[in-house]
Amino acid sequence: MLSSLTNFLFFLLFLNFHILSTQNHHPLDPLTPLELIQVQTIVKNHFSHNVSFHYVGLDEPEKSTILSLESNPYERIDTPYRRAFVIARVNGKSHQIIVDLSSNTTLCDKVYNGSGFPLLNFGEENAANKLACSYAPLIASIEKRGLKLEEVICMSFTIGWYGEEKSRRVVRVMCYYMDGTINLYMRPIEGITVTVDLDQMKIIGYRDRVMVPVPKADGTYYKRSNQSDLRRAVRDLGGPDLALDGHVLRWANWELHISFDMRAGLIISLASIYDPEKNEHRRVMYRGFISEVFVPYMDLTEEWYYRTFLDVGEYGFGLCTVPLVPLQDCPKNAVFMDGYFTLQDGSPGRIPNVFYIFERSARDVMFRHTELEIPGQTITEVRPEVSLVVRMVSTVGNYDYIVDWEIKQTGIIKVSVGLTGLLEVRGSTYTHKDQIQEEVYGTILAENTIGSHHDHFLIFNLDFDIDGDVNSFIKNNLQTVHLNRNTSHRKSYWRVKSEVAKTESDARVQLGSGASTELSIVNQNKKTKVGNYVGYRLVPGSVTGSLLSDDYYAQIRGGFTKYNVWVTPYNKSEKWAGGLYADQSRGDDGLPTWSSRNKDIEDKDIVLWYTLGFHHVPCQEDFPVMLVLSESFELQPTNFFEYNPVLKK
Ligand SMILES: [Cu+2]
Fold first, then answer.
1. Could you tell me if residue 579 is left (phi over 0), alpha (psi between -120 and 50 degrees) or otherwise beta?
2. Residue 350 predicted with pLDDT over 50
3. CATH superfamily of domain region 1-224+241-361+388-649
4. What does the buried/exposed string (b/e) look like for 238-257 if buried means 16 or more CB atoms within 10 Å of the residue's CB?
5. Which long-range CB contacts under 8 A does 101-108 form with residues at least 24 apart?
6. Distance CA 589, CA 105 (A)
7. Does residue 600 have an active-site annotation?
8. The Copper amine oxidase N2-terminal domain covers which part of the protein (predicted)?
9. Catalytic residue among 185, 306, 399, 401
10. pLDDT tens digits for 90-136?
11. Predicted ipTM of the assembly
12. What is residue 332's predicted lDDT score, i.e. its pLDDT?
């Protein structure tokens, strides 16, 4: 019987990392492999028990320190502290530890007694899968179904929270079948649930409820060697006009810092853009990253109801990133960057080519005009769009999320998310839609194969600093004005009524509810020459929100999906919208809790939270591997520049 050690072994292959210099860090640079080893040593020396590492990341210096360094770069001689934030399990308890690398000490070690548990790590997931695979009752169930043991692969699933008063750190292990395919996700072995206690690494529950046919292997293969080759030549767009200085990226009129975190994946910091009018770089965003991803399935059957995942806080969006493939994931002109994370024993692992950075010319137009009204002349001016993309792919089990942060010379930041990979399908007795007389919670995609309805909600933490960190959130409501016939030839027109959000409750917005509203972050202390506040607006893509009832346990845990937009005052510790301890969380930590304090947000350092959502009703084109399903949003300069910022280019 195979256990799914593939990932683990794959990452171990890359453990022959390079030892990087610890000198000349940007203070927001991720921890280097050498620093990760130092953290491992300090933490292990601190405890007499075995330590299981669940998160190690940079404990960044205070924002005020970073900003003062940015404005006085020569002060970099006094390097700010290098510290690590660690979450580890020791003797059945979750510890939050701050490690200071310069003094080689543990500054703080706090036991967390609240609800929820930290990120799972690969080591324990693989151990749980292996344990289940060798469990005699499971082997008997496999044999009873007439399946070959050596073709079975087991996977761990987080279990959510359904009102239990006491929680144990457990996962449910589900099994899949290969036998003639590599697409194991299309061949679930339904009806069997193995419950594993992760701390004790012991099976605490087993149930073989029902026998359902395993969907066929036929038609599930998706590798190119078995397909007709539809490749097109990859165009070389020429060398990128970018400079990478450590983790600081300079391209065209932009400068920003990019970093890898094992929980968030890609983190964008200190994004600023050059303003030719002012002859200076102007601050736009202090920080941007994916804070949480909520994926609730709508299937209520016993083996499925609990599948309401928080991918960032349970599995680690960074931990699940995969090396990108040159010339396939990206064009020839791409520049790559590696990422480093921590394994269960605290040692560093390397993900090569975790980010690709490349110029993109999609043959879009930045602006154009053809002037035909001047006698004897036709004047045409066209400026093609070229942008820079930072790309990562996080493969959370069956699903692949392609995340692009795209910066444009126009000042626009565009974020796109593409969903692809393999659906989570349920085995079924049905071979045709006409046979189905009951609720099956999905679409029949192939014989014995139901693609379950589900959502993907990705919430972004966007800490704007428009020309400084004192910003405000403005709703520009488009209102229809009705007129008396006697006063105008027109019966109606619309105008903009601006509303400054005073407190957090003013800034909770459900988009798509009929009203036309533009949402902006502005600096009320800075105006353009003609008197408009400088700002950026959110141009939402999808306005999809959760359809679950508010008092449903899964919705309580993913409560940040109640609104598409939230604004909170900046707080260094408020990073993870689904709570720091997301596994089996109870919704008592996270964005809705912070926002309920209803703090003042006008003329404050504020963070905009936006959720990009997908309702996914699977269709047959998603079988056996999904075509990319994309959504995006933009952050657009709005009265930020004095005029069209690319005119002088
Ligand atoms: Cu989906």
1. left
2. yes
3. Copper amine oxidase, catalytic domain (2.70.98.20)
4. eebebeeeebbbbbbbbbbb
5. 101/22, 101/35, 101/38, 101/39, 104/38, 104/42, 105/42, 106/42, 106/43, 106/46, 107/83
6. 29
7. no
8. 26-104
9. 399
10. 999 999 999 999 999 999 999 999 999 999 999 999 999 999 999 99
11. 0.98
12. 81
DSSP 200-237: TTEEEEEEE----PPPPSTT----GGGS-----PPPP-
| Catalytic (active site) residue 311 | yes
| 613 φ/ψ angles, rounded to the nearest 5 degrees | -120, 150
Q: Show Cβ contacts of residue 155 under 8 Å, excluding neighbours closer than 6 positions.
A: 4, 129, 173, 174, 175, 176, 397
Residue with tokens 């003797």: 91
Q: Is residue 14 scored above 80 in pLDDT?
A: no
The answer to whether residues 310 and 557 touch, using CB atoms and an 8 Å cutoff, is yes
Mean pLDDT, the chain, rounded, equals: 90
Cα of 307 vs centre of ligand 1, distance in Å, is: 13
For tokens 């009203």, name the residue.
515
Closest CA to 240 of 137, 356, 141, 151: 356
How remote is the CA of residue 63 from the centroid of ligand 1, in Å? 36
- The backbone torsions φ and ψ at residue 422, rounded to the nearest 5 degrees and listed phi first, read -115, 135
Q: What is the pLDDT of residue 72?
A: 79
* C-alpha 232 to ligand 1 mean position (Å): 27
Taking only the tens place, the pLDDT of each residue in 416-431 is: 999 999 999 999 999 9
Question: Would you list the domain boundaries of the chain?
Answer: 1-224+241-361+388-649
Among the listed residues 59, 261, 299, 311, the single catalytic one is 311
CA–centroid distance, 164 to ligand 1, in Å, is: 28
Compute the average pLDDT of residues 507-529. Answer: 91
